[in-house]
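Hey, I was hoping to borrow your eyes for a little while. A protein chain has come my way and I'm curious about its shape. Take your time with it, there's no hurry, and the full record follows here:
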Amino acid sequence: MSDASPNDFPPSNPRLAGWSRRALIQSGLVLGLWSLAGCKGPPSAVAMDTMPGPVNATLPPLAVGPGAPAARPIFPHSPLANGDLFVVPRSAWTNAVGPARRNIKPLNGVRRITIHHEGSTLFTAMDDRSVAGRIESVRQSHLSRRTKGEPWADIGYHYVIDPSGRVWEARSVQYQGAHVEDQNENNLGIVMLGNFDRQQPTPQAALALDRFIAQQMRRYSVPVQQVRTHQELAPTACPGRSLQGHMRAARGGGGALRLA
């Protein structure tokens, strides 16, 4: 287990070249005390049919060769040969290789899956640097939290899905997450970036979420009845009304997860 400090910035990772610790912290501050929102708080008053749709939902071509524009995605979006989705490694967004603290418990296998939204400000960016900075700001926020007096050891989720439909590795699946209080053992936490009380998932993100959940259901033999959302387990608005609606449809008759 690593004792990597959350202050080990700027990252040495070339994926985040140009991002200083100050820039990452500032990007977190721009979120405006996101930890007060996160997976908590009452739903907003914005009607579903007035929520903004996807912004820049058409994904630009993948970067190919040394002369490709840096702003374009550098990680694959297509499934691997076995049909699974490619997962962007944790090392692509942080040089903190493991938990920052020792108060972390083993996951003890996966028997259920819980879906969340990040729940701070709207987020529609698709480029690597913006997504990496957003995930790191979430980790920094989580390291400042406490549950029953104990500080969190790492980002609370196991996987993150961005608006372009990429899946990013977050907390190692060796360890319990910190995403549903008192219900983290055997519980795989998946979060989608954005606030889905105020926006709708992009088509790419929604498709990736369905496919990745189905992949994990097969991998760990999790029945669809054990795929839940945060608000179904605790009094919270998470994962937001539009993502909650998507999950309800995906688990319903003829939905993507019923057919998994």
Remarks:
- The chain is about 20% helix and 10% strand.
- The longest strand covers residues 112-117.
- Helices lie at 21-30, 128-143, 203-220, 241-251.
- Residues 81 and 215 are 13 Å apart (CA to CA).
